[in-house]
């Protein structure tokens, strides 16, 4: 076989070896190396590149005992695609140069050593320049491939031991073309491999993140389950506490009311002094006992009503009753107190209001009594006016009906001390008053309006407040007109 034939055979043997080594490297990376840190990946690649170059030299074409022709410079080109640090390319070049000297130190070995080191310096310089100029991957690698392959031919022709004419005319044309083709082929193959490796790494990272998120969601789910369990336990405890409170209040109601009622009856008998045995001072003391007992009984009733509402044990008991008689009863009840304080008390109602209505008479009476009592309590002079009339409330139109009016309104208006705007919502809360000093000056617990508001809600209505400091207050109870339907239907039938 001629030298050219043996050269081509050796050339393709080098190509086969490089393909085999590249495939082996891809398997190593696929199943082991991709888990390494970037630094260890770089070190592993440098070692594999030097081993690949040494292998191609071992199976390279030998012109003589000292002259070896191989494709070791392809390892430098491939390194330009993969390594992160440009100095790693120079490290590979020096490693390949030393590997060439391992086959014997002679002129050809020195030329081969300096050739591969020179090629690595060229690649390093091109990579550094391309990074500064931000040259794209394909443009950068095209420059590397063309420059390295061309300079390799020039270097061998200038310094190699093969006769220049023989090398340039018989070997260089074919080897340069094949080397360029192989270089570009490796570039595209390795680029695809690198992209696939990056995609796999991204998928691996995504999988790890998903597992972490799933673990966190599982922990959160367990925390939510435990929190829900604790809330259920707390709820059960609250239900039991509410039950115990209701039972306690029911028992206390009986235990407190029985002796209190006896005290009220006895004090009233003493106050009446039917047989005239008591002095005026003793009668006055008996009256004070009776008045204080009635106040205590009212306080007990308010606390019991509030606890029943909070526990959901308060039911509405509607009945048919005469509205105008209820208003007259309010006038008769509060007129003595108004006369005592020198306040003008007026009770009016419009003809449009029904004579009878169907609602919880006891709760309605209690609401009006609370509003009337507060009006008289906080009014030193002027008037207190209770009125009943049909009304429409655009702000609550969703509660309306097809009746002529949406609401039946009961308004208590006074000329008392008034309530500041910032305190008007507070007075409907239990145990709150507009001013803490009012409880000392006027008395009261702050429960009346809170209970009235909740009674109104139980009957499907609400209470509105208009007030200005020093100008009085206007409390309005709105009840839905539909409460009259049962009475009207009964009368029509």
Automatic annotation (TrEMBL):
Specify the domain of life of the species encoding this protein.
Bacteria
Instruction: Report domain Histidine kinase positions.
Output: 251-483
Supply the EC number(s).
2.7.13.3
Keywords (alphabetical) are: ATP-binding, Coiled coil, Kinase, Membrane, Nucleotide-binding, Phosphoprotein, Transferase, Transmembrane, Transmembrane helix, Two-component regulatory system
Classification via PROSITE patterns: HIS_KIN
Spans through the membrane: 12-31, 43-61, 73-96, 108-130, 137-159, 171-190
Which residue spans adopt a coiled-coil conformation according to this UniProt entry? 200-241
Keyword Transmembrane on this protein? yes
- Identify the SUPFAM superfamilies for this entry: ATPase domain of HSP90 chaperone/DNA topoisomerase II/histidine kinase (SSF55874), Homodimeric domain of signal transducing histidine kinase (SSF47384)
Any one GO molecular function term:
kinase activity
Q: Which InterPro entries match?
A: HATPase_C_sf (IPR036890), HATPase_dom (IPR003594), His_kinase_dom (IPR005467), HisK_dim/P_dom (IPR003661), HisK_dim/P_sf (IPR036097), Sensor_HK_Regulatory (IPR050736), Sig_transdc_His_kin-like_C (IPR004358)
Q: Establish whether keyword Transmembrane helix is in the entry.
A: yes
Q: What class of enzyme is it?
A: transferase
For this protein, the record's Gene3D superfamilies field holds: 1.10.287.130, Histidine kinase-like ATPase, C-terminal domain
Specify the protein name: histidine kinase
């Amino acid at each position: 076989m001629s030298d050219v034939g043996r050269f081509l055979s050796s050339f393709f043997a080098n190509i086969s070896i490089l393909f085999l080594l590249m495939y082996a490297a891809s398997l190593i990376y696929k199943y082991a190396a991709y888990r390494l840190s970037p630094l260890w990946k770089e070190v592993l690649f440098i070692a594999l590149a030097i081993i690949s170059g040494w292998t191609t030299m071992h199976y390279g074409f030998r012109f003589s005992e000292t002259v070896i022709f191989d494709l070791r410079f392809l390892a430098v080109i491939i390194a330009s695609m993969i390594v992160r640090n440009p100095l790693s390319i120079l490290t590979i070049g020096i490693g390949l140069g030393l590997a060439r000297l391992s086959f014997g130190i002679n002129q050809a070995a020195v030329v081969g050593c300096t050739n591969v080191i020179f090629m690595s310096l060229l690649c390093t310089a091109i990579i550094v320049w391309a990074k500064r100029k931000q040259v794209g991957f394909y443009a950068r690698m095209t420059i590397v491939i063309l420059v390295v392959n061309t300079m390799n031919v020039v270097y061998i022709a200038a310094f190699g031991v093969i006769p220049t004419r023989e090398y340039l005319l018989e070997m260089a044309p074919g080897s340069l073309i094949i080397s360029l083709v192989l270089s570009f082929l490796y570039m595209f193959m390795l680029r695809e491999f690198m992209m696939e490796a990056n995609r796999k790494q991204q998928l691996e990272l995504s999988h790890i993140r998903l597992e972490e998120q799933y673990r966190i969601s599982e922990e959160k789910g367990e925390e939510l389950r435990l929190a829900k369990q604790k809330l259920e336990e707390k709820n059960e405890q609250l239900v039991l506490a509410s039950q115990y409170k209701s039972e306690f209040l029911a028992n206390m109601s009986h235990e407190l009311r029985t002796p209190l009622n006896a005290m009220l009856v006895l004090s009233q008998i003493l106050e009446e002094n039917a047989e005239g045995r008591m002095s005026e001072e003793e009668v006055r003391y008996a009256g004070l006992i009776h008045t204080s007992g009635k106040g205590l009984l009212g306080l007990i009733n308010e606390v019991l009503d509030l606890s029943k509402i909070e526990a959901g044990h308060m039911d509405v008991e509607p009945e048919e009753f005469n509205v105008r008689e209820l208003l007259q009863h309010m006038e008769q009840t509060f007129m003595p107190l108004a006369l005592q304080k020198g306040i003008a008390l007026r009770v009016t109602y419009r003809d449009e209001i029904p004579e009878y209505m169907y609602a919880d008479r006891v709760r309605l009476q209690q609401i009006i009594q609370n509003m009337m009592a507060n009006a008289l309590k906080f009014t030193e002079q002027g008037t207190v006016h209770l009125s009943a009339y049909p009304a429409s409330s655009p702000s609550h139109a969703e509660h309306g009906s097809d009746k002529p009016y949406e609401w039946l309104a009961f308004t208590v208006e006074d000329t008392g001390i008034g309530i500041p705007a910032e305190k008007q919502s507070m007075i409907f809360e239990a145990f709150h008053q507009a001013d803490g000093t009012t409880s000392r000056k006027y008395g009261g617990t702050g429960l009346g309006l809170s209970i009235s508001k909740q009674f109104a809600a139980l009957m499907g209505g609400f209470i509105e407040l208009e007030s200005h400091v020093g100008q009085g207050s206007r409390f309005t109870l709105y009840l839905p007109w539909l409460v009259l339907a049962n009475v009207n239907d009964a009368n029509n039938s």
